[in-house]
Amino acid sequence: MAFDGVTIANVVSELKKELVGGRLYKIAQPEEDELLLTIKHPGGQKRLFLSAEASLPLLYLTETNKTSPMTAPNFCMLLRKHLQNGRITDISQPGLERIVHMEIEHLDEMGDLRHKTLIVEIMGKHSNIIFCDENGIIIDSIKRISAAVSSVREVLPGKPYFVAETQNKLDALHTDRGSFRNALAAKPQPVFKAIYGSYTGISPILAQELCHEAAIDGESSTAALSDSDYDRLYQVFEGMAERIREEHFAPNIAYRNGKPVEFCALPLTLYDYEGCHTVAYDSMSVLLEKYYKEKNTLTRIRQKSSDLRRIVQTALERNIKKYDLQLRQIKDTEKRETYRIYGELLNTYGYDASPGAKSLEALNYYTNETIVIPLDPTLSATENAKKYFEKYGKLKRTFEALGDLTKEVKAEIDHLESISTALDIAMFEEDLAQIKEELTESGYIRRKGNAKKQKITSKPYHYISSDGFHMYVGKNNYQNDELTFKIATGNDWWFHAKQMPGSHVIVRLGNAEELPDRTFEEAARLAAYYSKGRGQDKVEIDYIQKKHVKKPNGAKPGFVVYYTNFSMAIDSDISGIRLAEG
Question: Does residue 506 register a pLDDT over 90?
Answer without folding.
Answer: yes
